TrEMBL record:
One of its GO terms (molecular function) is oxidoreductase activity, acting on the CH-OH group of donors, NAD or NADP as acceptor. SUPFAM superfamilies: NAD(P)-binding Rossmann-fold domains. Belongs to the short-chain dehydrogenases/reductases (SDR) family. Keywords: Oxidoreductase. This is SDR family oxidoreductase.
Length: 250
């Protein structure tokens, strides 16, 4: 399939894990991809793999909590590829996340965490939407989590915010024919998950799933590409769970 031939996409947090899988899949279907991340070395490696596989990609360093950095990234995408059609807001503080309670987490850390994990999606959207509007359409996928419906302290709170942001932006951007949706993964087998969640807890979560295995980044790719593509042209403001049945909403 080549659903994204001639289109340009930015994927944040794309230097590893889920973000890298999204970037590689978009490139494989013809997109020109900006691999965006703070980690230049790992991001360049993802670009190298995409190019080796016949795709088109460039690296863009970004701090999604910084509006000036986000604007510079959007400008890079336009300079390299002529415009912006798609955005995946995947960047997050996760693998190195400090575990604490809402009542006791140091305030400076809480504010920094939320500036990336929740506000970052808004910062990036504000940077790209004028360019999408010039194209006459666009699509955005935000990375949520099943943590939004479970107790997960400030991590879960950030994902509740991402869900709300997805719904509110869908209304604000619909008039510009820009769609905004989110994916809420369950437990995904990545190095970041292994770093932040003890194996015994992961095993317990998996035992409770209807589909009793951890997900992989590839399990999320199909939903992401669908939501970005024209196949979802009348889908906006939705949060799609890809979680092995962990959360069932009626």
């Amino acid at each position: 399939m080549a659903r994204f031939t001639g289109r340009s996409a930015i994927v944040t947090g794309a230097a590893q894990g889920i973000g890298a899988a999204y970037a590689q899949a978009l490139a494989a279907e013809g997109a020109n991809v900006v691999v965006a991340d703070k980690n230049a070395e790992s991001g360049a490696a993802v670009v190298e793999k995409i190019v080796a596989d016949g795709g088109t990609a460039v690296f863009g360093q970004v701090d999604v909590s910084d509006p000036d950095s986000a604007t510079a990234l959007a400008d890079l995408a336009v300079a390299e590829f002529g415009g912006i059609d798609h955005l995946v807001n995947n960047a997050a503080i996760y693998g190195e996340m400090k575990l604490n309670l809402l009542l006791t987490v140091p305030w400076d850390y809480y504010r920094k965490f939320m500036s990336v994990n929740m506000d970052g999606a808004l910062v990036m959207t504000r940077a790209v939407w004028p360019h999408m509007s010039k194209r006459g359409s666009g699509s955005i996928v935000n990375q949520s989590s099943t943590a939004a419906w479970l107790y997960s302290s400030f991590y879960g709170l950030a994902k509740v915010g991402v869900n709300g942001l997805t719904q509110q932006l869908a209304f604000e951007l619909g008039g510009s024919n820009i769609r905004v949706n989110a994916i809420a993964p369950g437990p995904i087998d990545t190095d970041a998950t292994k770093a932040v969640t003890p194996e015994v807890i992961v095993d317990d979560i998996v035992k409770r799933l209807p589909l009793k295995r951890m997900g992989t980044p590839q399990d999320l790719v199909g939903a992401c590409l669908y939501l970005l593509s024209d196949e979802a042209s009348w889908v906006t403001g939705q949060i799609f769970n890809v979680d092995g049945g962990q959360i069932v909403r009626s």
